[in-house]
């Protein structure tokens, strides 16, 4: 199994600013993903983080708003740009590994935008 | 559009009984289905995977069934314990070459001592 850590665990930000969230995996994973989870709701996939190339974004999410980097197999960042209160959410990264296609999730970053 | 629904937002079950959670989907042909557990303030944790050609999977006190005709999966926890209290999420994968998951709405399970 893989253990995933995220930094920061939470933050309170002013509208119009940007926040970069870091995701570190303790072992190599084949794929990494970024999700958003609104309070009390399920997970929505933002994008697949591709190593050494541009991320693949889901409908409704764009690179200018959520730039993603993945410089190697164990690290990725998600930036939430030009934030508004609607961006307040929990952001989770995950890594794909194992024999059951299971995704291992980080603990999440709780973002509040004022 | 694709839709995944879990039958209830919250479910209360007496300790020792079997908890049964439901996951229904429409406009989707999944290659596999997974169940995850999520505790407050934490990320989801993988529990079980069942493939489209499998009817049932078991792991300790957990059992999952998958009916592609009914477009439904049932998740059972037998001999439930208060420690089983959590939110349970089903997730569907379209194929094994594309590992994106689509998550259901989740069911918050409470086991009452």
Helices and strands of chain B, in order, run as EEEEEEEEEEE
Query: Average pLDDT value of chain A?
Result: 93
Structural class of chain A: mainly beta
Largest sheet of chain A: 7 strands, mixed
Q: Tell me the total number of β-strands of chain A.
A: 11
Oligomerization status of the protein chains? heterodimer
The N- to C-terminal Cα distance of chain B equals: 40 Å
Radius of gyration of chain A: 13 Å
| Number of extended strands of chain B | 11
Low-confidence stretches of chain B: none
Share of helix among residues of chain B? under 10%
Number of helices of chain B: 0
Major protein interface:
A-B, 23 and 21 residues
Share of helix among residues of chain A? under 10%
Shape of chain A: globular
Strand content of chain A: over 45%
- Structural class estimated from helices and strands of chain B: mainly beta
Following the backbone from N to C, one meets helices and strands of chain A in this order, namely EEEEEEEEEEE
Uncertain spans of chain A: none
Structure commentary:
The complex is a heterodimer of chains A (114) and B (113). In chain A, 0% of the residues lie in helices and 53% in strands. Chain A is an all-beta fold. Chain B has 113 residues and is an all-beta fold. Chain B is 0% helix and 61% strand. In chain B, the strands form two sheets. In chain B, strands 2, 4, 5, 9, 10 and 11 form a six-stranded mixed β-sheet that branches. A five-stranded antiparallel β-sheet of chain B has the order 1-3-8-7-6, with no helix packed on it. The mean pLDDT of chain B is 92. The A-B interface holds A 4, 30-31, 33, 41-45, 48, 92, 94, 96, 98, 100-108 and B 32, 34, 41-46, 48-49, 89, 93, 96, 99-106.
């Amino acid at each position: 199994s893989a253990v995933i850590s995220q930094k920061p665990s939470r933050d309170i930000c002013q509208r119009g600013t940007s926040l970069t969230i870091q995701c570190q995996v303790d072992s190599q994973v084949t794929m990494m993903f970024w999700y958003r989870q609104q309070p009390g709701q399920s997970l929505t996939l933002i994008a697949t983080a591709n190593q050494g190339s541009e991320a693949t974004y889901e409908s409704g999410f764009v690179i200018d708003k959520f730039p993603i980097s993945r410089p190697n197999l164990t690290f990725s960042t998600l930036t939430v740009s030009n934030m508004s209160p609607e961006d307040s959410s929990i952001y989770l990264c995950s890594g794909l590994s194992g024999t059951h296609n299971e995704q291992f999730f980080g603990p999440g970053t709780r973002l509040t935008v004022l | 559009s694709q839709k995944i629904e879990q039958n209830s937002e919250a479910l209360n079950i007496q300790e020792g009984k079997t908890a049964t959670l439901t996951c229904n989907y429409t406009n989707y042909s999944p290659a596999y289905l997974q169940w995850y557990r999520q505790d407050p303030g934490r990320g989801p944790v993988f529990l079980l995977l069942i493939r489209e050609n499998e009817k049932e999977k078991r792991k300790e006190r957990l059992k999952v069934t998958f009916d592609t005709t009914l477009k439904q999966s049932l998740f059972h926890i037998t001999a439930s314990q208060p420690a089983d209290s959590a939110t349970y999420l089903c997730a569907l994968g379209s194929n094994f070459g594309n590992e994106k998951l689509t998550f259901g709405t989740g069911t918050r399970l409470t086991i009452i001592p």
